[in-house]
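Subject: complex prediction, re-run

Hi both,

The earlier run crashed halfway through, so I resubmitted it with identical inputs.
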Amino acid sequence: MAKPAKSGTVAAKSSAAKSGSTATRRRAAPAKKAEPAFAEAGDDNFALRSLQEAHGNEKRYKASDEELLEFYEQMLLIRRFEERAGQLYGLGLIGGFCHLYIGQEAVAVGLQSALDSTKDSVITGYRDHGHMLAYGIDPKVIMAELTGRHSGISRGKGGSMHMFSVDHRFYGGHGIVGAQVSLGAGLAFAHKYREDGGVALAYFGDGAANQGQVYESFNMASLWKLPIIFVIENNGYAMGTAVKRGSAETEFYRRGTAFRIPGMDVNGMDVLEVRQAAEIALDYVRQGNGPVLMELNTYRYRGHSMSDPAKYRTREEVQEVREKSDPIEGAKKELLARGISEDKLKDIDKRIRAAVSESADFAENSPEPDASELYTDVLVERY
Amino acid sequence: MAIELKMPALSPTMEEGKLAKWLVKEGDTVQSGDILAEIETDKATMEFEAVDEGTVGKIVVAEGTDGVKVGTVIALIEGEGEASPAPAASKSEEKPAAEPKAEAKPAEAEAPKKAETGTAQLASEAKPAANPEVPRGTNMKIATVREALRDAMAEEMRRDDRVFVMGEEVAEYQGAYKVTQGLLEEFGPKRVIDTPITEYGFAGIGTGAAMGGLRPVVEFMTFNFAMQAIDHIINSAAKTNYMSGGQMRCPVVFRGPNGAAARVGAQHSQNYGPWYASVPGLVVIAPYDASDAKGLLKAAIRSEDPVVFLENELVYGRSFELPELDDHVLPIGKARTVREGKDVTIVSYSIGVGLALEAAEQLAGEGIDVEVIDLRTLRPLDTDAILTSLKKTNRLVVAEEGFPVCSIASEVIAVCMEKGFDDLDAPVLRVCNEDVPLPYAANLEKAALIDVPKIVAAVKQVTYR
Ligand SMILES: Cc1ncc(C[n+]2csc(CCOP(=O)(O)OP(=O)(O)O)c2C)c(N)n1
Ligand SMILES: [Mg+2]
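This time it finished cleanly. Structure:
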């Protein structure tokens, strides 16, 4: 009964439809070149659109072969890791809710590659495995968390939805839709307060974008010029609800306008476009201009979680995105076109399969937490 | 080498399923992402995707086969030589344990082969005794709690056009837990309304619509998410009638699953019964079986007061007798004796009732005759029923799937102390979950949740056995 979303969203939206809307916008805001310095606050329309313009002028990051190979490898790691997680779930080794990131790999990889890992921070929701892998966190401890084992990153107490790495300034892993947006603004508040130069990245979904606290946070973040990038991962659906059935304004990047937050509409299926957009946004935020809102147009190939029959969309819709805009296939094609050999890519593939197998073995064979762990970590201090 | 495809678990609770349909045949080549088969679980038909590339070598389990256990080999995929190293988990199981490296790990601990869920121990086969509120000789059918709840809503919607249902995924998706199945079809999108993920907003809209003369049934996907909306439940819905000197009513029902679910961790597993039951101005109902679920939801929808109606995901699929009556409405605020006994009383509600009944059966074998009271309504609490049973048995245990501190159990114990002290032959004990956020790890989850042995032990303690 569910009508397919903005059907074929990604493919259509990120190519043709997009450039159309950019053109319209250009007409509205007279041709002014986005110079490195950002528009004065007084120039209302331009200030809100300047980043999108800058992105329009320079769509893709000029990656070296090594960089593109690295992005490819990271995306492939996420894909293979998630496929394996799905298998382990099927075998009953992972329980509860398990939300896979398959299809969305370019978003986390493109954005996080642009961060300064010595000071920036990241927070997301429950669909968090990909963000952790993109951060270079050991797949073994992530997989062992999925199986609920002692050597998991949360010692088996959190599970798929609740993983954290304070060392990497990765602040979770949150199960309540929308919560990470205010929390992310809080991380940004701390960056500003401590004047540490860091920027917070708060990822949330198209469904989460409708929670009230998102807008409360937008207002405060803009009012106080907090160093944060709000990243909406628009994968077309919130569980079974296609974007247009749940959102009055489906162009999410516009939703900061009322709070004077500039928006960026980004093709989330091309890791180089994502990376380029990240550079522009980070530059703006680091200059102390306050928040940026980025909409990353992407697609989830699997069901919402492992128990979602996904009857709200057609197989053809999924297949079309897979065939036309897969981020990994896209990167692969580009690498081959640059003259990277098939063999080299095969080697990467092998290496990743081995790493993923190793993580799965580790996760299957690690013991469960000790029974005494039930009562640890409830409070930090004793009273 | 061949990769074994095994029957997958496609939901947190799936143990077995039906192999409804093969979408490939022997000899087909498949690629990662191809749909191989359709598998029916208790809740839905799911697609089973290929992860590996290769050729379908052999289909082991034919389509149409029912009751295929999770983990059964259902087909073999021939890999394409070295391009596709077999990643089947069956293979990795044979490998030696991975090096633990820096991570400390207790040497003697065993890695389990499959992670059981602690909620398995909340299962119960025991059935409540016949309900005297249902006229003798009424025809009974077998129905799940899920169906009973849906029927209650449908009947009330037919009866009163002010009644409508709203919430996340209630319409087109048929409910995240399929409780609203079929309602959209019968009542249309005006009365069965999908909301965005905006609990605070739609709880307010429901509350306001009730103030405006409608009869909203607001579904929370789970009560964990109602915390986003608790301000409207408590500050807007519960207090209005009082603050307006009785002018402005708020006949809204907030309903959805509450309590622990399988392996979903701390943020998705909590019993809010005690929270809402502490608020004057609310009615709080938490039924156990299908008959009570139906009869009390109908009563809740008809009530002039705001009602918090707490269901339980783990109970949705349980089958019970459901009276075939034209209008099965039960009284709010009345507990039900689901088992008569004379030696000791176990007071419980919701999923705890099944455990209490199991414990009672077990104890009967040891010569202890247990009475089990299902509170059904948590506010107003049926203190008469508790005290009457206490007068008879002189010993009481409260069993509650929830935190122990400031619980319904605490309240029941206070009632016994204040009004039943002279009837007590032993201290009243409570058996609850452990006082920790619910952990994900299977072994810790088991340890954290209430179970039958803990109830049995408490009963023995108060009966000095
Ligand atoms: C407050 C709250 N309401 C509802 C849920 C249940 N829920 C979990 S994920 C989800 C859909 C979210 O969709 P979206 O924000 O688009 O993110 P995606 O899953 O697509 O990554 C819902 C409704 C929840 N976890 N928290
Ligand atoms: Mg989404």
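The two ends of chain B are 61 Å apart (CA to CA).

- K.
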